[in-house]
Design goal:
alpha/beta; Rossmann fold; Transcription Termination Factor Rho, Rna-binding Domain, Chain A, Domain 1; 2 domains
Length: about 230
């Protein structure tokens, strides 16, 4: 089983009202404190490379915490699924979780469903536009406790875009299974279309509101899925 995060296991509000504002508020201070650390330098290098393609639109690049922060905030304003941005955000959030300022939020049916599916000998993996680190932090520091022992693998945009069929083929290959043996759950129809194009089974997760017009089967919570 392959699961999306935002809007599927985790409320969208937590991402937009808690995680993103925390990153906006803390990025510059984090960069100033950790600027010379190799992992942070790698994030900055990725962002520097990405800025090259954005140079005509984005704020001018400067190789310092203030300049990188300006570009990071611009990327966030564009809602970019930038690999460099997601990697840096993960590190900022890691510090927040470690200090107790953040706790990962999951829907109440998620822990029970994870435990049930594992008891059925199903393998569970995550595919999100958030970095692998960010995924592990949400599930490792969740309001329901540490859920990471129930999860086998994590995939992010370094595997490929979530709306690209080839990304799902790569995930199946890395899991060592045929795509036809994978069930993908997401709240985004375009992602489900891409997964189905690779041969995966799909389920649309509709946590609130009306389900969009689609031929993907839909569920409102995990309690009814593979009981």
């Amino acid at each position: 089983m392959l699961l999306d995060v935002e809007g599927t296991t985790t409320p969208v509000d937590f991402v937009y009202d808690t995680l993103f504002p925390f990153a906006r508020a803390q990025t510059r201070a984090f960069l100033e404190q950790h600027w010379t650390e190799p992992g942070v330098a790698d994030c900055v290098s990725q962002l520097r490379d990405e800025h090259t393609a954005d140079a005509s639109l984005a704020p001018a690049w400067s190789d310092d915490p203030a300049g990188v922060t300006r570009y990071v905030l611009w990327l966030m304003d564009q809602d970019r699924k930038s690999t460099g941005l997601k990697a840096l955000q993960g590190r900022v959030w890691e510090e927040g979780y470690g200090q107790g300022a953040l706790r990962g939020v999951v829907y109440e049916d998620v822990p029970r469903a994870f435990a049930r599916w594992r008891s059925q000998a199903r393998r569970l993996a995550i595919f999100s536009s958030g970095s692998v680190l960010a995924q592990k932090l949400i599930f490792g520091h969740s309001t329901a406790g540490d859920l990471t022992p129930l999860l086998e693998a994590y995939f992010d945009t370094t595997t490929g875009p979530k709306r690209a069929t080839e990304s799902y083929r790569r995930i199946a290959q890395r899991l060592g299974v045929l795509p036809t043996s994978v069930l993908f759950l997401s709240d985004v129809v375009a992602e489900l279309d891409a997964a189905r194009g690779a041969g995966m089974a799909t389920v649309l997760c509709v946590r609130s509101g009306e389900a969009p017009a689609t031929d993907h089967p839909a569920v409102g919570n995990f309690g009814v899925l593979l009981p």
